[in-house]
Amino acid sequence: MNGLPARRLLLVHAHPDDESINNGVTMAKYAAEGAHVTLVTCTLGEEGEVIPPGLAHLAADRDDALGPHRVGELAAAMAELGVTDHRFLGGAGRFRDSGMMGAPQNTRPGAFWSADVDEAAGHLVEVIREVRPQVLVTYDPDGGYGHPDHIQAHRVATRAAELAADPGHRPGAGEPHRIAKTYWNRVPLSVAEEGFARLRASGAGPFPGTASPQDVPGVVDDGRITAEIGGEEAHAAAKTAAMRAHATQIAVDGPFFALSNDLGQPLFVREYYELVAGRPGAPAGERERDLFAGVDA
Ligand SMILES: [Zn+2]
């Protein structure tokens, strides 16, 4: 179909770097296996804080040049993961980073948080009807941790999946397509706790402080996890390299990393998901080891 590979995975994220932190192993794995991996990033991450002092001038409150810089970081990260189809929702710069919840940037013109969900979803419908993914990965309704752009990414992805499948929605704009399985990004609590125990045992690495399991987006009780991806050293290495490529946002040190808050956290080389739509491809009580399990390619 469309000359694309049989297996097609779509990931929807808020900012450049979210995809590498959440799904780097998964993206590297499926790209390496020949699946078509499409990343849609909803903003350029213009409001991010900048870690390297030499690049501090890029920040929104100085030159406001972080967006274009992060486009380059994302491209470098995708090269590390072997992903060639990465796009910005509605084109680069169509929607702007909204900043943290409650910030004045939430409501500035063009802010993703202020966008009409159906209008924003319309751009994603076009991608879905073109690429025709069987599997969609996005955040939970809280965006994993309450960031407005992450919440909005969830809403837009969910709405677009619905509209893309509806034959009555813009009948001229591509054949309708129903996504077989939708997953939310998750981290099992036990994995987060074990990771932080490792970090504390190592003396917190080079970071001045340590985050806590509750700071990790998408942490839930282990019982909610339905899929687990990982175990290949090459994919873990690709994820680490992709995270390093987001140098304005992430400081990687061995098996740990920190964001601009300088709090160390474990770098997870296994990734976890909760299936929220579609039929599980593993027996009840067992985790899927393949997001395409049970999907007819
Ligand atoms: Zn983000």
Shape category: globular
Total domains: 1
CATH superfamily: LmbE-like
Bound molecules: zinc ion
In terms of DSSP E residues, the strand content is 15-25%
Note poorly predicted spans: none
As a percent range, the share of helical residues equals 25-40%
Give the helices and strands as they follow along the chain. Answer: EHEHEHEHEHEEEHEEEE
What's the tally of helices?
A: 6
How far is it from the N-terminal to the C-terminal residue, by CA?
A: 10 Å
Largest sheet: 8 strands, mixed
Task: Give the second-level CATH assignment, the architecture.
Answer: 3-Layer(aba) Sandwich
Radius of gyration: 18 Å
**Using DSSP, what is the number of strands?**
12
- According to CATH, the fold-level topology is Rossmann fold
Enzyme class: hydrolase
Pfam families: PIG-L
InterPro entries: GlcNAc_PI_deacetylase-related, LmbE-like_dom_sf, Mycothiol_biosynthesis_MshB
Function: Catalyzes the deacetylation of 1D-myo-inositol 2-acetamido-2-deoxy-alpha-D-glucopyranoside (GlcNAc-Ins) in the mycothiol biosynthesis pathway.
Summary of the model, kept short:
This is 1D-myo-inositol 2-acetamido-2-deoxy-alpha-D-glucopyranoside deacetylase. The protein is of the alpha/beta class and 297 residues long. The chain has helices spanning 18-32, 66-81, 117-131, 148-165, 189-201, 233-245; strands spanning 8-13, 36-41, 85-88, 135-138, 181-188, 209-210, 219-220, 227-230, 251-253, 256-258, 263-266, 270-277.
